[in-house]
Amino acid sequence: MCPKVQSRRRGLRVTVWSLVAVLTVAVGATGVVLGQNSYDMDEQRVSIRHGGHTLNGVLTTPETGRKHHGVVVYVHGDGPVDATHDGGYRPIWEANAKAGYASLSWDKPGVAGAPGDWLGQSMDDRADEAVAAIAWARARPDVDADQIGLWGASQAGWVLPKVAARTPVSFVIAVSPAINWLRQGRFNLLAELRAEGASAARTRAEIARSDAVRRLLARRATYDEYVEAMGGEDGMTAGRWRFISRNHTADATRDLRALRGVPVLLSLAGHDINVDTADTERVYREVLGAGVSLTVERYPDASHAMVKWSIEQSDLRTALTALFSPRSLFAAGFLDDQRRFLAALGRGGRAG
Questions:
Q1: Predicted pLDDT of residue 67
Q2: Separation between Cα atoms, residue 230 and residue 241, nearest integer Å
Q3: Which CATH superfamily hosts domain 43-179+257-346?
Q4: What is the pLDDT of residues 48-65, one digit of tens each?
Q5: Domain boundaries, given as residue ranges, for the chain
Q6: How confident is the model at residue 249 (pLDDT cuts 50, 70, 90)?
Q7: pTM of this prediction?
């Protein structure tokens, strides 16, 4: 056989086997991704009527075959969040399902095609939404009306107790909840400056700018007045300014009294630069007392979002972990602690 022909055939075989290897890896990776992103629960889209419009929701239910189950109603944090939080809620919903609980969440107004605009909401508006969702859940024949509670993160800290004051809830899971809007803002500003290694001069300048914004908020300045005072647009939109103006006086301290006697799981992150978790724990303990109704769980390796700090520092690592092992995104013990908390309630017990 001609050496050139042999060489071509040898090259063709190498190419073919290389393609086979790539395809094998691709198929294997696809199998891993599909397997890791399949959850032990049933998921369906639902519609909830509220205030003349529809909340576009997602309801997940356990695959236990039980006729009745409790429900965890989700209250989002800040930002344009859809019902699944871009899929980030699903590992938590699965933990709920393992404890025998359904999970109910919905797109914020204006997100994923939902009507309205979330930036036009007050914390009371958000509480009204959750109350409507709870009423919708109670009307379902497959729901245990005595086991409906709330899950909320960050900004939801101002919403959860308002909901509890308006309708009975069986439990609350509060994840890095905020207490006071202005205190949280100042804590976040200083924490970010420290993380960036800001100079003393820059820190003083940023504090002065923050104080100027507070004065504008106190006198109910318009967006145009804000832009003029700041020397031009700085990324703050008119909608965001109105949202902050509407909500900047939020403080959960007084409202938290509505949670007295309600089993509360307070989850706090060790690397939280958004919320002063020490202040949050102090206020929760002072208002709710030292009884067994309050359970505090701390996660030293967690960020504000309860994602492992080491993972969150890399966008690539976060993306790959979310794709190939989404449950391991969360801080050690976070999912199991929520499952155990709910399971104890389902047995008529108290987590504590």
A1: 79
A2: 13
A3: Alpha/Beta hydrolase fold, catalytic domain (3.40.50.1820)
A4: 999 888 999 999 999 876
A5: 1-36, 43-179+257-346, 183-247
A6: very high
A7: 0.87
